[in-house]
Amino acid sequence: MRFCPQCAAPLADQFHAGRNRAVCPAPDCGFVHWDNPLPVVAAIIEYLDGDGRVLLARNAAWPVEFYALITGFLERDESPEEAVAREVKEETNLDAESVALIGLYPFHRKNELILAYHVQARGEIVLNEELAAYKLVPPAELVPWEGGTGWALRDWMRDRGLMA
Length: 164
Prior knowledge:
Helix content: 10-25%
Radius of gyration: 19 Å
Domain Nudix hydrolase: 37-159
Order of helices and strands: EEEEEEHEEEH
Number of helices: 2
CATH class of the largest domain: Alpha Beta
Structural class: mainly beta
Largest sheet: 6 strands, mixed
Protein name: NADH pyrophosphatase
Shape: elongated
Number of strands: 9
Distance between the termini: 43 Å
CATH superfamily of the largest domain: Nucleoside Triphosphate Pyrophosphohydrolase
Cofactor: Mg(2+); Zn(2+)
GO molecular function: metal ion binding; NADH pyrophosphatase activity
Organism: Denitratisoma oestradiolicum
């Protein structure tokens, strides 16, 4: 953000409330860009119609070999549990039967806070336009990646005794 969204003045880097922030220098404005992280929900989907395998999906913009969890933004007036069930439905057409919090994980690269859930779901898998492919992986064969949703997958696997 380079300009104030309230008065259009160029923002200045100033020490404010304990750290450097983008602040509007206009005397009558006072805008501060707090740059707080965005809440994002993530789902480890246990596909109940697929013998409990975990659904991983590939975004249409990603390299062919990269698969990850279903994620999406928390919307206004929506609980995180409602958000993750909605994202699972929107992106895979699956209906969440249970939603359980795994944990919270920082994703510094995109300034997000990931709220990760274990979602047990049923239905016919139909991907939306954001996703190019999916695969169903037995839980014992999952390999967590470093950072973000990979940490959630690691914790979920550890809780089930699938890794040390």
